[in-house]
Amino acid sequence: MTITTATATVDTSLWLRRFHPKPDAPVRLVCLPHAGGSASYYHPVSRALTGVEVLAVQYPGRQDRRAEPCIDTVHGLATRVAEQVATLADRPIALFGHSMGASVAFEVARLLEEDGIVLKHLFASGRRAPSRHRDEHIHQLGDNGLIAEMRRLNGTEGKLLDDDELIRMIIGAIRNDYKAAETYVYRPGPPLSCPITVLTGDSDPKVTVDEADSWRTHTTGPYAMKVYRGGHFYLNNHQTDILETIVDRLTSG
């Protein structure tokens, strides 16, 4: 696939949010949200990382893009995100994706490598390896069932889940993302050549440590895995260590 990067066809400001521009940073980190998530989830990461320019992906169908139709496949999202990220190739690029965002990041990395752009690093968080499939159908549940699943994973603040009007406004985007994540099918192909670091919680109901460790088969480059105490949103309680890991990986070598 050839990625279109002409300025006239790529509006990076719509997809990529720079909360704290760092024009002199030697490396850029593009962060991809989880199912139902938005770019603002990574605002604290952008604020905390000095020396790294953080760009957070804003998927259509939420926040200021709420009026736009959602994209309900991982491959569809990856194609659009890759178009944006390819415009940043004047500097080294790394990707960080959590949950569904890790699957999207992997497919983005594949598209970029097909176009001759090799990532500085890929961070895959809270997601089983692309080749490890689970038969899941949460996206087919009614609204109450979907909300119950969100509470189980503890990924959204309780106040939001208790606000019936607000949750009904965003439930469509959440269901869309669950569909994208659950219907994602890995297409066999060459492994990546970039380094991969996998981050996961030891009690995550969405991914076992073994499923996470299978990421090692998806790159010929360096591979590492870090396991933290916690569930699917373990990263909310280990932010300092995770940020130190990111900086270490991006500044070494």
Secondary structure topology:
Layout lengths: L11 H4 E2 L10 E5 L10 H6 L4 E5 L16 H12 L7 E6 L1 H15 L6 E5 L17 H11 L4 H5 L1 H19 L13 E6 L7 H5 L9 E6 L10 H13 L2
Parallel strand pairs: 2-3, 2-4, 4-5, 5-6, 6-7
Antiparallel strand pairs: 1-3
Explain this structure.
This protein is an alpha/beta fold and 253 residues long. Helices cover 36% and strands 14% of the residues. The longest helix has 19 residues, at 164-182.
The gist of it:
By secondary structure, the protein is α/β, with parallel strands linked by helices.
Keyphrases for this structure?
36% helix; globular; Rossmann fold; single chain; TesA-like; 253 residues; 7-stranded mixed beta sheet; alpha/beta; 9 helices; Surfactin synthase thioesterase subunit; hydrolase
Residue share in helix: 25-40%
Catalogue the unreliable spans: 5-9
Shape: globular
The main β sheet shows up as: 7 strands, mixed
CATH homolog superfamily:
Alpha/Beta hydrolase fold, catalytic domain
CATH fold category name: Rossmann fold
Number of domains: 1
- H/E element order: HEEHEHEHEHHHEHEH
Compute the number of helices: 9
The fraction of residues in strands falls at: 5-15%
Give the CATH class: Alpha Beta
Structural class: alpha/beta
CATH architecture: 3-Layer(aba) Sandwich
Q: Mean pLDDT, as a whole number?
A: 91
Biggest sheet: strands side by side, in what order?
1-3-2-4-5-6-7
Radius of gyration: 17 Å
Q: Can you count the beta strands?
A: 7
